[in-house]
Design brief:
DNA-binding; 413 residues; globular; 17 helices; eight-stranded mixed beta barrel; five-stranded parallel sheet; phosphoprotein; 19% strand; EC 3.1.4.52; alpha/beta; binds magnesium ion; TIM Barrel; 3 domains; 14 strands; c-di-GMP; binds ligand C2E
Length: 413
């Protein structure tokens, strides 16, 4: 079994990178094939299944995310391990890559030793997974007395299915919770608002990131129900605080594009505000730039109705969604939140600094409020103050907190 060298497929639009990777990997004794685009890669894979794929994310035409989603969604190719390659250092690129089902992620420029170790380890796991798969097929066949066609259980499918089942159960048992992260007004240095963030403590596993489970809730068709619960809980919480020494607080909730398109976001919000007696200006909805770009006519109409009710609207993760400024002008918005990716290196990367300054100026010239998220250091804070940013959110001031801890902080303000 191990005598045949493994075949690795390299997919990258840059010829020098393909050449470099081929040289490195051949040197380690692997066979290589290469493709200059996502489309070409899929053609090659249809002819011959590689043992592992090194896949660039940013390519013209079909990008790496799309290629990985297609491969992982197809039973014949789902178990081929994928290592994604990217020059993007932000964690969202990694998370998006991992979400599509890719097993590993390597940053460019590629380190020879890291490449070799990751390839070796993944190939080992794959061999083990194939054996497990064969074993589970055999067992299943023995149990059912059936042949090959009925039993198709990939190890990969099992873990994904487990995750989905556990999440379904968490929703049924109302085991999801909310944490709140303070936003601080730079002019006064005081907490001016909060963002509600979903939390899931998966029994036996610990905390699972909402960046992972929210897309699964979307694909399971559960996000509308969960989203409605988030809105209700937040409104109830605002009402409770109003009656105590904490007083009125503005809270933003993250809203998925699915809630606008499949659900009735307006009705959900109107009913929560009425039920708990909350003033609309205390609530803000955060929509990502990406979700605004889908089904725009309907989205604009819904946002206009929300705005007319007095609810505030914020664009989350701004700067990464490729929306044009002409487009932006058509949305009724109050706030732009600069994506964490630009803030991370704002003090060391002149391009990120320039983008951040530009977004702040743009927001102000459109009379919008601008919030920077992911602020972790004093140096980032100083930069943002100097650049005229209105509010910040980040670990420097506070992590997202459970209600009891947050209340102590709010009472001190
Ligand atoms: P987001 O709305 O952009 O939320 C900001 C994320 O940045 C949060 O991650 C927050 O914990 C994290 N963060 C805050 N300050 C810092 C910092 O200083 N450094 C770093 N590295 N990270 C910081 P979290 O809670 O894991 O949420 C991830 C995403 O999941 C959110 O991104 C949002 O898109 C989604 N999400 C969370 N709750 C909900 C929800 O109730 N509904 C929907 N539809 N999506 C949600
Ligand atoms: Mg947000
Ligand atoms: Mg964000």
């Amino acid at each position: 079994m191990a005598s045949q060298p493994a075949t690795l497929l390299i997919v990258d639009d840059e010829p020098q990178i393909r050449k470099l990777l081929e040289t490195l990997l051949q040197h380690e004794g692997y066979q290589t094939m290469s493709a200059g685009s996502g489309e070409e890669a899929l053609d090659l894979i249809a002819q011959r299944l590689p043992d592992l794929i090194l896949l660039d994310i940013m390519m013209p035409g079909m990008d790496g995310y799309e290629v990985a989603s297609q491969l992982k969604g197809d039973e014949t190719t789902a178990s081929i391990p994928i290592i994604m390659l990217s020059a993007l250092s932000e964690s969202s690129a990694r998370i998006n890559g991992l979400q599509t089902g890719a097993e590993e992620f390597i940053s460019k420029p590629v380190e020879r030793i890291e490449l070799w170790l990751r390839v070796r380890n993944l190939l080992r796991l794959k061999t083990h997974g194939d054996q497990l798969k064969d074993h589970s097929l055999m067992l299943e066949q023995q149990l059912r007395g059936q042949n090959n066609e009925t039993a198709h259980m990939h190890v990969h499918d099992l873990t994904r299915q487990d995750l989905e089942n556990a999440l379904r159960q968490a929703v049924e048992r109302q085991a999801l919770t909310l944490h709140y992260q303070p936003k601080v007004e730079l002019a006064s240095g005081r907490i001016c608002a909060l963002e509600a963030l979903l939390r899931w403590d998966r029994p036996g596993y610990g905390a699972v990131s909402p960046a992972v489970f929210v897309p699964i809730l979307e694909s399971l068709g559960l996000i509308v129900t969960v989203g409605r619960w988030v809105i209700d809980s937040v409104c109830q919480q605002i009402a409770t605080w109003q009656r105590t020494a904490i007083g009125a607080v503005e809270v933003s909730v993250n809203v998925s594009g699915h809630q606008l398109i499949e659900g009735d976001l307006i009705a959900d919000i109107a009913s929560a505000l009425a039920t708990f007696g909350v003033a609309p200006h205390c609530l803000e909805v955060e929509l990502t730039e990406g979700s605004l770009m889908e089904n725009t006519q309907h989205t604009i109409a819904s946002l206009q109705r929300l705005r007319a009710m007095g609810v505030k609207i914020s664009i989350d993760d701004f700067g990464t969604g490729y929306s044009s400024l002409a487009y932006l002008r058509r949305f009724p918005i109050d706030t732009l939140k600069i994506d964490i990716a630009f803030i991370r290196e704002v003090t060391s990367n002149p391009q990120d600094a320039a983008i951040t300054r530009t977004i702040i100026e743009l927001a102000h010239s459109l009379n919008l409020r601008v919030v920077a998220e992911g602020v972790e250091t004093q140096a980032q804070l100083a930069f943002l103050k100097e650049a005229g940013c209105d509010q910040i959110q980040g670990y420097l001031f506070s992590r997202p907190l459970p209600v009891a801890t947050l209340e102590r902080l709010l009472l001190e303000r």
